[in-house]
TrEMBL record:
<dbReference type="InterPro" id="IPR029062">
    <property type="entry name" value="Class_I_gatase-like"/>
</dbReference>
<keyword id="KW-0963">Cytoplasm</keyword>
<comment type="function">
    <text>Part of the phosphoribosylformylglycinamidine synthase complex involved in the purines biosynthetic pathway. Catalyzes the ATP-dependent conversion of formylglycinamide ribonucleotide (FGAR) and glutamine to yield formylglycinamidine ribonucleotide (FGAM) and glutamate. The FGAM synthase complex is composed of three subunits. PurQ produces an ammonia molecule by converting glutamine to glutamate. PurL transfers the ammonia molecule to FGAR to form FGAM in an ATP-dependent manner.</text>
</comment>
<keyword id="KW-0378">Hydrolase</keyword>
<dbReference type="GO" id="GO:0004359">
    <property type="term" value="F:glutaminase activity"/>
</dbReference>
<dbReference type="GO" id="GO:0005737">
    <property type="term" value="C:cytoplasm"/>
</dbReference>
<keyword id="KW-0067">ATP-binding</keyword>
<keyword id="KW-0315">Glutamine amidotransferase</keyword>
<comment type="subunit">
    <text>Part of the FGAM synthase complex composed of 1 PurL, 1 PurQ and 2 PurS subunits.</text>
</comment>
<comment type="pathway">
    <text>Purine metabolism; IMP biosynthesis via de novo pathway; 5-amino-1-(5-phospho-D-ribosyl)imidazole from N(2)-formyl-N(1)-(5-phospho-D-ribosyl)glycinamide: step 1/2.</text>
</comment>
<keyword id="KW-0658">Purine biosynthesis</keyword>
<dbReference type="GO" id="GO:0006189">
    <property type="term" value="P:'de novo' IMP biosynthetic process"/>
</dbReference>
<feature type="active site">
    <location>
        <position position="212"/>
    </location>
</feature>
<protein>
    <recommendedName>
        <fullName>Phosphoribosylformylglycinamidine synthase subunit PurQ</fullName>
        <ecNumber>6.3.5.3</ecNumber>
        <ecNumber>3.5.1.2</ecNumber>
    </recommendedName>
</protein>
<keyword id="KW-0436">Ligase</keyword>
<feature type="active site">
    <location>
        <position position="210"/>
    </location>
</feature>
<dbReference type="GO" id="GO:0005524">
    <property type="term" value="F:ATP binding"/>
</dbReference>
């Protein structure tokens, strides 16, 4: 008799204006896991196997000096002011796995939990389409069988250009922190086609493409499951 696959308890952080939260919830439910929402005003949450910060325009990607005044577009900044960030930092300090997708990636970078920075696309326009991505680091959620595989994955962002200088890029390469790269077409102008990076400890992952919107998604989910179980 085969052992029943262990379902993961997944916390999905929601900010005002998040719009990929339900996509993420359904993604994990589809594969038999137990996701639940965490509202951004929480400053503490119980134990989870995985924490996910989904895509979507958290706070509209806007930063207001006054509630009704002028604003600047700076994805992730407003989210850093939410009480939930304390719990996210605590989760990270414990070495627990965190995945940030698109806007979640931007938030993790702004929070200093991932290296580099994300700026406006070279086109200065929002881009939404499928793109081909290649798994370039065997640290991708701990599944070495994923190395070298290519997938057609949706992207949807206006500030997805990943930027590091040459010295920082070489450091990321040496530490095998770049786990995902665009192939054939770079939708935003990211340095060396970088689409996803991890922290040095390989516990926090950020990626611009949306695995939760991939028509199948089983390969990404298997990779996530493998990492979390290790």
């Amino acid at each position: 008799m085969q052992n029943k696959k262990k379902s993961l308890r997944v916390g999905v952080v929601r900010f005002p204006c998040s719009n990929c939260d339900f996509d993420t919830l359904r993604f994990f439910i589809k594969f038999g896991h137990r996701p639940e929402f965490i509202w951004h005003n929480e400053n503490f949450f119980s134990s989870y196997d995985l924490l996910v910060i989904p895509g979507g325009f958290a706070f509209g990607d806007r930063v207001y000096k006054k509630a009704t005044g002028k604003y600047e577009i700076d994805p992730g900044v407003q989210a850093l002011r939410s009480p939930i960030m304390k719990a996210i930092y605590d989760f990270a300090k414990k070495g627990r796995p965190i995945l940030g997708i698109c806007n979640g990636f931007q938030i993790l970078v702004k929070a200093g939990l991932l290296p580099g920075k994300l700026t406006q696309n070279n086109s200065q326009k929002f881009f939404c389409d499928f793109t081909i991505c290649k798994i370039t680091g065997d640290s991708f959620f701990g599944d070495k069988k994923m190395l070298g595989k290519k997938f057609k994955v949706p992207v949807a962002h206006g500030y997805g250009k990943y930027v590091v200088n040459d010295k920082e890029y070489k450091r990321l390469q040496k530490n095998k922190q770049i786990f995902l790269e665009y192939q054939n077409f770079n939708p935003n102008g990211s340095v060396r086609n970088v689409a996803g990076v991890t922290n040095k400890e390989k516990t926090i992952f950020g990626m611009m493409p949306h695995p939760e919107r991939t028509p199948d998604g089983k390969f990404f989910m298997r990779a996530i499951e493998t990492y979390v179980k290790n």
